[in-house]
Write a structure and sequence with these properties.
With 277 residues, the protein is α+β, with helices and mostly antiparallel strands. It is built from eight helices and twelve strands.
């Protein structure tokens, strides 16, 4: 099973690039962030004509997430209220369309667009920390379902120093501050989720986002802020995880590149216990 995550930075602006990516890679599921369009204006027909099913949770001009799948998804849930129906805070955080989840072959895929935070002294930064604290609560509720979990998307956080091209320059700044990293680490530690990219690649130099400004792409000065986190049983059946870097070289590209994980799922079950003898 091939699952992709991509912040497209406007689906209508980048629709041809997304089509090309799907034609080349043929993902079973592509999770989009920052679609920036109301649901009624989302280009569903483009994907449906390719045989894909579309689930969307968007808003005008900002945010927005989508799940595009080869087969129908089960139990699609939009917003964090999907797990926390009676929680008043979920209504507050779901004013911004940042979370959608669904079941594919029994795997719960949660697609996130984490707030950027803007600057350390801004209200947007305080909002980001509150959002991440509420995400922890949301994931804890999700774990009660006992479903294999894939948590992915644009996290707007470089979790380690090696996730930034020049760590000394940006460490402890926005997207790399200690409170942001600790908030995300809390979500991961309590849910036993692992960064599947780091299972296959331990070194620095691998980026998923390059700022539009200052020639960052031309100098390969990037950050790794788009992540895929998997529960234990999915980690055990993962075959690869890679950043599809070449999409960033497109004309008028998104500032993010897709990240893909290949999972052998459902896992093979040996009927004969002596099969390997």
């Amino acid at each position: 099973m091939l699952i992709a995550t991509w912040n497209v930075n406007s689906i209508r602006t980048r629709i041809n690039q997304v089509e090309e990516f799907i034609d080349e890679v043929q993902p079973d599921l592509i999770c989009l962030q920052e679609t920036k369009v109301e649901d009624k204006l989302f280009p569903k027909t483009t994907f449906e004509e390719k045989g894909y099913y579309v689930n969307i949770y968007g808003q005008k001009a900002y945010n927005g997430v989508a799940l595009i799948s080869r087969s129908p998804l089960g139990d699609v849930r939009k917003g964090m209220k999907g797990e926390l129906e009676e929680d008043n805070d979920s209504k507050y955080f779901d004013q911004q369309k940042r979370v959608i989840s669904g079941l594919i072959d029994g795997i719960r895929v949660v697609n996130l667009y984490v707030p950027n935070g803007a600057a350390l002294n801004s209200e947007k930064y305080n909002y980001k920390l509150k959002w991440l604290a509420f995400l922890r609560k949301y994931i804890q509720s999700q774990l009660k379902r006992e479903e294999p979990l894939c948590l992915l998307g644009d996290f707007n956080i470089a979790l380690e120093a090696k996730d930034i091209y020049k760590k000394d320059r940006f460490d402890n700044g926005i997207m790399a501050s200690k409170p942001e990293r600790e908030a995300l680490e809390s979500v991961l530690d309590e849910s036993n989720l692992e960064d599947v990219f780091r299972i296959f690649e331990q070194n620095s130099g691998h980026w998923s986002w390059w700022d539009y400004r200052s020639g960052s792409w031309q100098r390969d000065e990037g950050w790794r802020i788009d992540h895929i986190y998997l529960s234990t049983e999915l980690i055990a059946n993962s075959r690869s995880c890679m950043i599809h870097k070449k999409t960033r070289a497109n004309l008028q590209p998104s500032d993010h590149a897709p990240v893909l994980v290949d999972i052998s799922w459902p896992p093979l079950e040996l009927e004969d216990p002596y099969f390997l003898e």
